[in-house]
Amino acid sequence: MSSFINDFNNHIQAYFISSTYGNETLVTNNLNHLALVQDQRTFDVSVYSTNVFFVNLHKLMGTGTKKMALMWSAVSVLEAASKWEDTRLALVRDFHYLPPLTNMLQEVHSGEQQQRLLALIELLTHGAQLESHEPFVEALILRLLALMEQGHGHKDKTELVTLALSILVNLCYRNLPMTYLLTKNISVSSFCGKIKELGLVACKMYIILERNDFMKEMDLQYLLKMSFKEVRTVLASKNSFILRHVVDYLHYIRQQDQHAADKENGHKQLSVKDNFFRDNLKEFLDDIERHSCGQLDSTTATNTRKKRKCTEDKNSSGDSASSNDVMDVLFEIMECIVALEPVGPGYRKRIADVALKWIATSKQSCARAVDLLRVVLERSLGDKDEAVRELVGACQEVLTELMAMVANNTDEKLTISFSKLLTTMVKIQSSSSTTDLDNVAEQFFQHVFSTILSSSGHSFNYSLPDSEVRVYLWALHTFNDFANLSPTLWFAKVGNLLKQKPVHFMIARGLTSGDLELTEAMMQVTAAVDFPRREVSQMVGMLSGHKRRQRSERELGQKGETAGYAAPRPPPAALSRDLLERMSQTVSQIQDAVASGQIADVSTVELIEFYNCKIAMETQLMADLRASLGGMSAQIGTLLHQNQLQAVEIDKVQRKNLPLVLKVSALENENRTLEKELNHMKSATASYDRKIGQMKHELSDYIRKYSEKNQQCGALAKELEMYRVRDGNYEKENKRLQHELNDMTKTRDESRKLLKVAEDDRQKLAEQKESDKKMYESKIREREREISKRTDLCQQLEHQLQKRDTKIEAQESELKELMGQIAVKDERIAQIENELKESESIQKAIYSLMNKGKK
């Protein structure tokens, strides 16, 4: 529907330039489409295009009432926009729609059209505090009094008169200057006599006229009885505006309970203990149940009908909207009754059944029904366990259906109500398991937070309207309670949620929103173990500065608006309408006496003429001041519209700039982190320098030891060469001895042959032979001993050679190990040199970053 708003903003400019039939048709079609809106976000006043739309619509309604069809289309849009509280208050406070509606009311003479306008004005003025010095206020009061005078005594105009009186009640409720303005234009006694048949609204007007600052106990009792008596009539006529007065009364009782908690005769105790309240509560609930059942039947019947024409759809939508308003107010009344605690478990069960039946059957007014169900659950904690379990079981049966409605609906109120209901149910089931709620809670978690968890913080829309932010925050509060009571399933999920930057931003908006209930809920979330206090405090600081600037601008605007007016003083009690009429009659009688000659004194006549001229001058001056006040009010309205547009534009720009501010803060944090890393790198570089110096010292020690080892290896090589030469000499000597041994063996063989040859001569030469034999044997022994010695010497030389070989091999292996260690040290030296080069490059990069940061 936002496209229709943009189209209207485009077409209305062309209409203001040239009000042709084509431009008028385009504007009317856009307004007719917007009148059928059911989505709250369409008229969100935090959106710039919506503010432009309301300013253009106000300008359109201020052009005059020549084209009534266009005006009534605008009224239909205002009726649709007034369904939501924030928009309704903005229409009165920021856009000032009451002056054009007052002008339109003065031009309308049809009873139905007057009643429709009065219903809209009554809705807009409910809860609004207006200034009595605004020029349209007196005109509105006079028009309302005229309508009440015209409708007095006509039964078919009773509802119109009641609406007019309800508007007067809204204007004068807790507004003393407005009450004086009303009494200035009425005769109090005759006025009270004319409204005595109007029931609850008349009772409230009596109390306002009697004493405006507070209600006496007798007034409260009377208003209480009138409230219950009026319910049947109100439900039959579907006048939700009268029911709102009942809600105001019950809220007043609840507020007074907070101030009178320590007093014995507090207003709550007075009302709750009243016999009429106790005796007629059952009948009161019976009427509400019958009405709700009738509404459910009509809703079911409407769902089974076929589609009708467009005009019939408008009428049916208007009737359904009226019935839905009635049900909203009825649920609020029952919520106040349960909160005041005059009912027992049986009545609470009946009220819960009404809410459950409405949730299961109708999708309209579902948020109020869920709120009522939650309040009943909260007040049932002191009941018996069986009653509480039965009530919780009935609630769990509709949770799945409610979750489906939340998933398929864009109503933020329903989502928030559902979140609060889950919070209450998980608190009630704190002593038992929450497994039954986990499935629905998981679906709700994914429905609300899936977009945040699936996207990055940079792509998040930080210009979300306040209504959507409240949805996120109430859901966060709910799942924080789930995490406290069921940490196994929910603690990690909530912890991950609290790490997201968009969640930090929304928590900060909740803490600075001014909503006491939401702020209290966020304070409970801040008690979490892993709550990001620093990030949220930074966000709160930024948003608080923005809020302070907006508040100062608004205060300057309000000061500029009221700069030309003194504080309204209540007129003296003598300035009533009766006394003014008597004064006028006296002046006319004096003038008649002067004209007829009854007063002949010249000085007296001149004095009378002087006072007549002065009265005429004062009257003319008052007329000029009123005309000037009207012009100034119109100019102030235009300036306020411009101020509202500029404020929304500023808020839009600041919200767009918020991601940049967050990026700047992130860059500042990153800069601080880099500074810490730089200091760490500097300390690491110093430690690396110390290690490199130590390693250089170790390297010089290794080089010195290596040179010593080289010298030892050279000496060993020389000694080895010497041993090799000696071994060669020994080998030559061994060969020579071996050759000699072979020669001796040959000689021995030859000798044996000679012995055989000389065997024959042995006998002859026995003595010679024996001597020769002994001599030769002795020589042989000597030679054998010499041979054995040489053999031992050869074996010793071979053993020495083996030892030298093993020693040479050991020295060669030790040489290889030393060469390997030298290679390892060379590789380590190369690695350290590479690390030094990398450290120098990192140091140069850090210095360049620091230089860029300083620039």
Automatic annotation (TrEMBL):
InterPro entries: ARM-like, ARM-type_fold, CIP2A
Keyword list, A-Z: Coiled coil
Iron-sulfur among keywords: no
Domain of life: Eukaryota
Region (Disordered): 300-322, 542-571
Coiled coil (residue ranges): 734-842
Annotated PANTHER family: PROTEIN CIP2A (PTHR23161)
Name under which the protein is recorded: Uncharacterized protein
Species of the source: Culex tarsalis
